[in-house]
Amino acid sequence: MKLQLDDLALFTRIAELGTLSAAARERNVPVSQISRSLSRLESVCGARLIHRSTHGLSLTEEGHTMLAYGRRVLDATAELGSELGGRISGPRGWVHVSVSLVIAETVIAPSLDGLYRRYPNLHIELRADDRLADMARDGIDIAVRTGELASETLVARRIGGFGRTVVASPAYLKRFGTPRKVAELDGHRLIGYTANPEVNRWPLRNSGSEAAYQVRAYTRSDNVALILTLAREGVGVGRLMDLLAAPLIRRGELVPLLQDEIDSQYVPIHALMLQERHRLPKIRACIDYWAQWLGKVQATSTAVSKTAMGGAPTRP
Fold first, then answer.
1. What is the pLDDT of residues 178-214, one digit of tens each?
2. What Rg, from alpha-carbon coordinates, does the chain have?
3. Those residues with Cβ within 8 angstroms of residue 197's Cβ, 6 or more apart along the chain or in another chain
4. What average pLDDT does the segment 253-280 reach?
5. Where does residue 176 rank: exposed (0-12), middle (13-18), buried (19+ CB within 10 A)?
6. Is residue 172 a contact partner of residue 236, using CB atoms and an 8 Å limit?
7. Exposure letters 269-298 (e unless 16+ CB within 10 A, then b)
């Protein structure tokens, strides 16, 4: 069987995308060219790989077998090329990263200059999206997500994490006063988060794992970056990721509040990868670098909180 790797690669993308036209758009070629490649592959295999109907495409039994083996062949080829090329000039090529907008802005974007300095032949494509898409179908190499994750089909590596800090602007505190106890929050203008209502339960320290202050919002938003802006502009008291709050606390634009009473509630950050691709040198290089970079950012955030409060750093 004399398979052409490009025909095999194209078949896998047709299977992942679901239509010939989608594969044609991705390659910027006519659909007829995609159809010829598929017919050539089926001819070499001596079997129909895809059923085509007015309702779309579906794989035959032989097609499912070809897809499984084809992915292994393509991944092994990519890994070999990357490994051999990496020994000569270091990790190289495009890495497609899916990440929420707030993590893209606070973690990935600030880190890229250093990543490129270390690995000048790497290129990053960022897709800012909170949803965890089908990584194989969408061609995603790394998905960066927060929280506890469980998946039998993906490899997850913890690369860092963050806590959350209650903050307000100096202008707000001058106008409405500084809350010294959790109970005093009832008299303040609190900012709520509508995308995940559970985040509006601010966990209390030393009061049991289930004890929390339930926010009754004066202003609400479904966007974390907008909540930061609202707090910075003096609209109210909000609770923000340390990665977002620390730079503004350091510049005096925000003031941390109630750190002895409200738990920072550590949230892990994971990098998710397809099982067959996580060993590629270009992917390992990105993951290792971001884990190192996040470690430094976390240390800085803790130091900022300690300095701002004039005491010991809070536990994560």
1. 999 999 999 999 999 998 888 899 999 876 667 899 9
2. 25
3. none
4. 87
5. middle
6. yes
7. bbbbbbebbbebbbbbbbbebbeebbeebb
